[in-house]
From TrEMBL, chains A, B:
<feature type="binding site">
    <location>
        <position position="58"/>
    </location>
    <ligand>
        <name>ATP</name>
    </ligand>
</feature>
<comment type="subunit">
    <text>Homodimer.</text>
</comment>
<dbReference type="InterPro" id="IPR043519">
    <property type="entry name" value="NT_sf"/>
</dbReference>
<feature type="domain" description="tRNA nucleotidyltransferase substrate binding">
    <location>
        <begin position="160"/>
        <end position="272"/>
    </location>
</feature>
<dbReference type="Pfam" id="PF21133">
    <property type="entry name" value="CAA_C"/>
</dbReference>
<keyword id="KW-0479">Metal-binding</keyword>
<dbReference type="GO" id="GO:0000287">
    <property type="term" value="F:magnesium ion binding"/>
</dbReference>
<keyword id="KW-0460">Magnesium</keyword>
<dbReference type="InterPro" id="IPR008229">
    <property type="entry name" value="CCA-adding_arc"/>
</dbReference>
<keyword id="KW-0694">RNA-binding</keyword>
<feature type="binding site">
    <location>
        <position position="122"/>
    </location>
    <ligand>
        <name>Mg(2+)</name>
    </ligand>
</feature>
<comment type="function">
    <text>Catalyzes the addition and repair of the essential 3'-terminal CCA sequence in tRNAs without using a nucleic acid template. Adds these three nucleotides in the order of C, C, and A to the tRNA nucleotide-73, using CTP and ATP as substrates and producing inorganic pyrophosphate. tRNA 3'-terminal CCA addition is required both for tRNA processing and repair. Also involved in tRNA surveillance by mediating tandem CCA addition to generate a CCACCA at the 3' terminus of unstable tRNAs. While stable tRNAs receive only 3'-terminal CCA, unstable tRNAs are marked with CCACCA and rapidly degraded.</text>
</comment>
<dbReference type="InterPro" id="IPR042090">
    <property type="entry name" value="CCA_tRNA_nucleotrans_2"/>
</dbReference>
<dbReference type="InterPro" id="IPR006116">
    <property type="entry name" value="NT_2-5OAS_ClassI-CCAase"/>
</dbReference>
<dbReference type="GO" id="GO:0000049">
    <property type="term" value="F:tRNA binding"/>
</dbReference>
<keyword id="KW-0692">RNA repair</keyword>
<keyword id="KW-0819">tRNA processing</keyword>
Length: 466, 466
């Protein structure tokens, strides 16, 4: 496997150089963060509340990578504070700390997203917890994660963490948010702490199987949590929690495959994948050449926080795929895309655009007398019957006329009945565009990100395999 | 269920009248049969061999129905005669007994098919056996079957047997030959002996489930024979044998469904189903309206005995269906048809005529390192790859260009590689016609039987359900 590992040190140092923030960048981030903390504590004082405002996450741990423009500030209420107080007063304080132009974020728990000098600053109210306690809300663990990593990671390990994060970013599996379904920053940190180095992680990962249990940095596995998980990494700060719960099958497999490929032939492209410049005309040509039907449904992106948006998009997508397959099409591929602001797309690749005007319908076993009688009385004089009823093997069957024969008709008439999630359904009910085949290339012409996404959807090969 | 059973007696007497041979018919058959026996015994004497020539089957048992033009004459060698003698001298004697125009028949065992005054006379050499013995060849049991039924069936039961046979004929399940896969004459006789009357049989059958064991007329079931059979009727003459072994799932289910329907509403149409007069133009119209693709492959019928022909046709058909599905089509229905002399047809109903120019190919789990490496080295730089390789779920996949995209191409190029049986393959290699959609209606215009068969193939509804 490791023929060219001699190239590894120079690749790592190049990557490290690119992802380690400069002294100026650090100073800028630090200034912003301290400003927000000060404002938060001042606001709390005005409300007559005693809280601690603290920088958390990768900035506090000094494991952030230069391209990240995210910053976490926590407003920490004392142990035992009622959750309603945190949700009410905590949010007030967060808004005041954010300054102008904030918006509300919401995962399981409300917080404020501020935009300060090009940085996205998440200001999150939480409740103090101690190692081993049960958290009141899931964010309460974050300060403990910060402390844990700060206490374990020296500057060498921090550099290894940055390199791993950039690797995950390059192969598209960095981030626990639903949009990615990949590996959180904290999980990257745990893996490096456990395996000691970037290549230590990759060597272990390249041998991962399904249902891997990784006990790193004092995280002892609890058997009851292991069932049915793809990857189980006990959180050293709260052993009941699987730090890898968000990792999807695709992200897991991609990380394994990419680790193996990288160790076989280390290359910078894993960290910084080349993005081909793709024009609308190129995409039209590609779509034209592929004889399957690629279909897009574009609509206004619902104004909901990112994780809610992607939860709804993913659920709606899989229900639509099921409904379309139920009609008799083969769904060869499907995906959701959104800029999280203006537009969202459902994408489907189907084996065809239209179906024959009937489908075969299988009824009861001939042996079941009552069921057979029902079947026959239902279909013997039914206008939708094209052929039959007839017996095939041991069962009654009948060929029935279809309501719709084109995918276009099905989408236009049946979309509301496909089990679409609430906010997406609301948006779709206000209108959508149905775009078939090469027209997708034209429709995406003004949106570079969408063009790139569609290119990947058609080409399918991961960038690190090119 | 039995609302209108009051109509039953008059229907039965009408049917009995139509199927019971007249005195003249009996006399004619008797004359022919005795003539053949006399000729056989004379021929044996010329060869210096002592045999017994005997009328067997439904004529001997007086259970034949008027429309049947079949007659069995057995040349019975004494117990212990070597099988080679039977196959050699026996066949010689049979040929001499047949007179002009005979041809060789062959099931498991050679015999002679004579054509005498419009009757098909099977002249079959066999070896005497006694009840309970193991037969040397399967035909050796026939004289015991004749004796058994003659000893049990009085004229009332013989009439019931005739009515049941005509019922089975009407619904298309009469005959154990491979073409039908249904109920032999002897099995009909056993059922009537067991259940006492035509309606006794139907009442029992309408309650049959899968794996029915029917011990009639002293046939005690042997457990070792029961496994996995749909219907097990121990032969009272040889308990090791299942007299219902030839019954296919379709024939079994059809008999049950028709029995139930008949008892619910007795009608002559079950015995003499109306055959709509269908023209080539009607069929063209029907084929045109059905948006699936109906395809016929017509070729010269191989000159082999009926059971060999149908064995090969059925086996070839199911292999072709498998191959066609393997290419990506849905086989909605398939059938073989032949006049057993001039032509044979394979018929397929497919969901479409062409496929997209590529198909998805699923590779190994990403976890399997060696298999993944093989997969990648095979497809990374392969000209047949349209998209990918990519990861879906936990597996490597790749979209590959198809060799052929139309069913026409596939049949023309790949038919020889579909596992066609010998004689059929020989015939196909000498040429075939591929006939698609409505052209089938035109191609069948001069053949009434084929027209009727195609009509059924498209319409699918059994005649007794119309």
């Amino acid at each position: 496997m490791s023929k060219n590992l001699s190239a590894l040190p120079s690749i790592k140092s190049k990557v490290a150089e690119m992802v380690t923030p400069t002294a100026e960048e650090r100073a800028a981030v630090d200034r912003i963060a301290r400003e927000v903390c000060t404002r938060a504590e001042a606001a709390a004082e005005r409300h007559g509340i005693r809280v601690r405002a603290e920088i958390e996450g990768s900035v506090a741990k000094d494991t952030w990578i230069a391209s990240d423009r995210d910053l976490d500030v926590f407003i920490i209420f004392p142990e035992g504070t009622p959750i309603q107080m945190v949700k009410g007063k905590g949010l007030e304080i967060a808004k005041e700390a954010a300054g102008k132009g904030w918006k509300l974020g919401y995962a399981e728990h409300p917080y404020v997203e501020g935009n300060i000098k090009g940085f996205r600053v998440d200001i999150v109210p939480s409740i103090e917890m101690r190692k081993g306690d049960r958290p009141t809300t899931s964010v309460d663990r974050t300060p403990l994660h910060t402390d844990f990593v700060k206490s374990k990671a020296d500057s060498t390990l921090r550099s290894e963490i940055r390199i791993l994060k950039q690797f995950m970013k390059g192969i598209g599996v960095y981030g626990a948010e639903l949009r990615v379904g990949g590996f959180s920053g904290y999980l990257c940190e745990l893996l490096v702490l456990g395996y000691g180095s970037f290549e230590g992680v990759l060597k272990a990962v390249s041998r991962w199987k399904e249902g891997e249990v990784v006990e790193v940095a004092g995280g002892a596995a609890q058997k009851s949590n292991m069932k049915g998980t793809l990857l189980y990494v006990p959180d050293p700060v709260d052993l009941r929690r699987n730090a890898a719960a968000a990792v999807t099958a695709n992200a897991y497999a991609s990380f394994i495959a990419a680790s193996r490929a990288f160790l076989g032939s280390p290359d910078e492209k894993f960290f910084f994948p080349p993005r081909p410049k793709i024009s609308s005309a190129d995409l039209v040509k590609m779509l034209n050449e592929k004889e399957s039907l690629i279909m897009g449904i574009s609509f206004k992106c619902p104004a909901v926080p990112s994780d809610i948006l992607w939860g709804e998009l993913n659920k709606s997508l899989s229900r639509m795929a099921k409904a379309i397959e139920g009609e008799g099409f083969q769904v060869l591929d499907s995906a959701a895309w959104s800029d999280e602001a203006e537009i969202a797309y459902f994408l489907f690749e189907l084996d065809r655009a239209t179906l024959p005007n009937w489908r075969s319908h299988t009824g009861p076993m001939v042996y079941l007398a009552a069921e057979s009688d029902n079947f026959l009385s239902k279909y013997l004089k039914n206008e939708d019957v094209v052929s039959g009823p007839y017996i095939r093997g041991s069962r009654w069957c009948v060929d029935l006329r279809r309501r719709f024969t084109s995918i276009e008709e099905i989408i236009r008439k049946d979309l509301p009945r496909m089990g679409i999630s609430k906010h997406v359904a609301d948006s779709l009910s206000r209108g959508f565009d149905l775009i078939l085949g090469e027209s997708l290339g034209t429709a995406a012409s003004s949106n570079k990100e969408l063009l790139a996404y569609l290119y990947d959807f058609v080409r399918k090969k991961p960038a690190w395999l090119q």
